[in-house]
DUF2726 domain-containing protein
Amino acid sequence: MSDAIEYMSLSPLGILALLIILVAIIVIIVLMCRRARDTYPYESVDGLFSPAELAFLEVLDEAVGRRYRVFGKVRLADVIRVRSGLERSAWRTAFNKIQSKHLDFVVYDADGPAIRFAVELDDRSHARAERRARDIFVDRALAAARVPLFRFPVRRAYSVEDIRDRIFGT
């Protein structure tokens, strides 16, 4: 029995070797966790809509009623497509212009897939030159595809009647 106790007791050098091994294992684990985190460097956002967009969405939803459904942050390439018949490079160039742009809201028929119109909510950022160029492109692309677009300025409050009148002309 005393041989077993002697065998289990470590010299200071043995304890140091075990500590070095333990520290190495901890460092390896930390590096592996960090690498896994860097492979997927994502986190959730606080919300899908800004406070201004959310306030507008609530009023827009009421303005269009049950006949329509409102979807937010819709990719432009999911609303319009590049016409067929173009050369491959021309098609790719045209598609690249719409693939990463989004519309604030798109309104569909509630009982079918028909797109009725799009809505953009314009805040102060739309006064910048690069944003104006983007807006002009979106306006023209939607017009070419015959998708109506309504632009509304950001406000503190919105009226259901004003939005309904502007969209439906009632």
Remarks:
- The mean pLDDT is 90.
- Residues 2-39 form one domain.
